[in-house]
Amino acid sequence: MPEMSTRYLNPVLLLIIVIYLVLGTFYALLTPSWQIPDEPAHYNYVRFVAENLRYPVLQMGDYPHEYLEEIKARRFPPEVSIDPIRYEFHQPPLYYSLAVPFYGLTRFWPPAQQVIALRFLSLLMGGGIVYLAYLIAREVFPTNEVLALSTAAFVAGVPMHLAMLAAVNNDGLAELILAGILWMLVRYIKKREKGKGGAEGGIPRRLAGLGVLVGLGMLTKTTTLVSIPLVLMAVVLTTGHRPSPISHRLSAISYQLFAIFLPALLLTLPWFIRNASVYGGLDILGWTRHDAIVVGQPRTADWLAQYGVARLARDLLLTTFRSFWAQFGWMGVLVDERIYLLLALLCAIVGAGFFIYLARVVRQRDILSAYQKAALGLLALSAFLTLLSYLWYNTKFVQHQGRYLFPALVPLGLSFALGLREVLAKERAKVIAALCLLALLVLAAKGLLTSDFNKWSMALLGGTALAFGLKTLLPERYDDSVFALPYLVLFALDAICLFGFIVPYFR
């Protein structure tokens, strides 16, 4: 498929963004106020900045654990104040500064309506994430428009991601900036690989712009700190292997890093100095103060002592999976167990396809260009660092929330698309159909022996075997339509989660 001109917006991409905005609008309107994790604390930050024209300082008492648990259990009745919930006051200021005009325009509205206005700000930022996901994937695979569109559809369609983007929080802006950084980095790698890096005698504007974006990310949320090693990797790998004297390469690397990180430092230094002055010592991110004030939040060490390693690991994996896809409210609104089973089977099949794709790349080295390998390596590092930061956070606190992995959603979406394409190839589809049929027979035999038939699992395996079997019989002209089906199911799942579980739960 030929590369599409960047002057025009692909109509399918436009449709994906419109579907995302329509579904997100329903989530923003129909999810009751404060029934999204941490939303009251983020709202109070916006309100403080708007009313005091300065940034708050996190203090003891800003995390009233027992009070928060009580009003969560009562589902935030209107007569109960959310004013004491201020534990996000250590966050960097950019999102809240951007939200102040929205608060100002609605300052005479009731809080419930103000929340909806602020949710739309996050929703618009999410539309930018979807668009950048498309651009990143198309930059890596410029001749495969389907991969780019499917990556965007994945980012738009994960139900929990949609719910978090239709909320008052700084997550959407952080993801938007991080996606922008990834897009700039893959473009940077492409230009360097093609020898279009430009002269290095003056500060390159693109590198300075990248530095500004890195700085803005650090002024939004610490999840964007993964951009620092990503920048280092991109610069060192693309410049360090060039056939020139090592002194020239080191000079070029130093120059480019200086051009990137100087603007980032100039942007963030005032905020870091401010934090050092109010929190003391080297607590420039406010983490030490945050860890000290969240008294009552479950600590991993306590859970280990009480439940043991096996239970903790099981809870981490199970809850992370569920809350990545669909576990709403304050982790209290789960969907039907059969939906989780369907998603688990989908992930297993697509995951197997992705590993098959990686094996093909290793065996057939000409499948990808040097640039594509470098770009995919960068995206893989981004996902790995996000996972690492998630696991590190869980060494301190019990925070088994899959939403913390959303900064890696773009590389995950591209990996999902690559794996899905692999398993839908005719020969692979035959193998998947056979394996599902074999698993169905095993379950049937187990049911005969134990008189305990897992009917849903058997139906799911049988349906999957039938679907992949039919795929092998379809002409190639239907491949794109078949490829689009899982993403249409994701969008349908968004509606099912909202109208079938979230709305009834809070009714």
Q: What's the short story on this structure?
A:
By secondary structure, this protein is mainly alpha-helical.
Given helix and strand content, the structural type is mainly alpha
Number of domains: 1
End-to-end separation: 48 Å
Helices and strands, in order, run as HHHHHHHHHHHHHHEEHHHHHH
**Uncertain runs:** 1-6, 197-202
Number of strands: 2
Over the alpha carbons, how many angstroms does the gyration radius reach? 24 Å
Inertia-based shape: globular
Proportion of residues in helical segments: over 70%
Main sheet summary: 2 strands, antiparallel
User: Strand order across the biggest sheet?
Assistant: 1-2
Report mean pLDDT, rounded to a whole number. Answer: 93
Q: Beta fraction of the residues?
A: under 5%
The number of helical runs is 20
